[in-house]
Amino acid sequence: MRLLLALLVLAAAPPQARAASHWCYQIQAKPSNYTCLGPDEWEGSCQNNRQSPINIVTAKTQLDPNLGRFSFSGYNKKHQWVVGNNGHTVMVSLGDMASITGGGLSTRYQAKQLHLHWSKAMDRGSEHSFNGERFAMEIHIVHEKEKGLSRNASQNQFAEDEVAVLAFMVEEGPKNVNFQPLVEALSAIPRPNMNTTMESSVSLFDLLPEEESLRHYFRYLGSLTTPTCDEKVVWTVFQEPVQLHRDQILAFSQKLFYDHEQRVNMTDNVRPVQSLGQRQVFRSGAPGLLLSQPLPTLLAPVLACLTVGFLR
């Protein structure tokens, strides 16, 4: 009898109470295969006003001369990384083998994990967007402040820059051989809570654009893009995209699943764009970063002047 009463109480509870800790992406909430909270119902800090991701309007960004080059430590070390399906994305565990300084950051940050967001559509898989334009995928390398570098650790855990995320857009292009070990590892982790090890060694630099292009980036303060959406992230969103072949991009949607029964393909694991509010987005100080207008439009006045001068 007590068990029956307990079940009746649970059945009468609102969906939020039954699945308070079970969050999902919108594509999972739609099929109603199981009860989960879509992005509009995410809890924690997810409904606050300094959230991520955002749409970056490049013409409205502000130049910050302090946003110089990064110094990457351990990014060139090749390793057979452990790769896992955590039910929301594919995650590469980085241990304590890499770190970053510079780039306008206040201190050294230790790389902890790399994960990705994607879609079957080549213009719907990134979380951030540039001038309303989205990309096929987005790579996040998540770093945390090195322990012991803060005078007050208890206060530091609530700092707005406790976590530093480097974000890279991914667009369709030629086959990327450096990315292939990660793509091949997907077949071994179709279901949540499965892990494998890459068969070939790769470095973090192997997965990213050329280091010289990493001077060009945008910076703002925001949040984690998954619950509990803690507002403690200093975001660096790089302008230069990574290029993968279409088949490599689609492999993530085809080989991975949200559920143990392999009924719901893992795709569109993207949080909707959030309001920028009163925040300012900054851009690095490297020249030639922005082309807010098409190149022919910018060159037209110059060509006109040259033509007039020639005719004289």
TrEMBL record:
Cited SUPFAM superfamilies: Carbonic anhydrase
Q: Which UniProt keywords apply?
A: Cell membrane, Disulfide bond, Glycoprotein, GPI-anchor, Lipoprotein, Lyase, Membrane, Metal-binding, Signal, Zinc
Give the UniProt entry's GO cellular component terms: brush border membrane; endoplasmic reticulum-Golgi intermediate compartment; external side of plasma membrane; extracellular exosome; perinuclear region of cytoplasm; rough endoplasmic reticulum; secretory granule membrane; trans-Golgi network
Main localization is membrane
Q: Does the keyword Protein biosynthesis apply?
A: no
By its UniProt entry, which PANTHER family does this protein fall under?
Answer: CARBONIC ANHYDRASE, CARBONIC ANHYDRASE 4
What is the role of this chain?
Answer: Catalyzes the reversible hydration of carbon dioxide into bicarbonate and protons and thus is essential to maintaining intracellular and extracellular pH. May stimulate the sodium/bicarbonate transporter activity of SLC4A4 that acts in pH homeostasis. It is essential for acid overload removal from the retina and retina epithelium, and acid release in the choriocapillaris in the choroid.
Q: What is this protein called?
A: Carbonic anhydrase 4
What is the originating organism of this protein?
Answer: Capra hircus
From which lineage does this chain's organism come? Eukaryota, Metazoa, Chordata, Craniata, Vertebrata
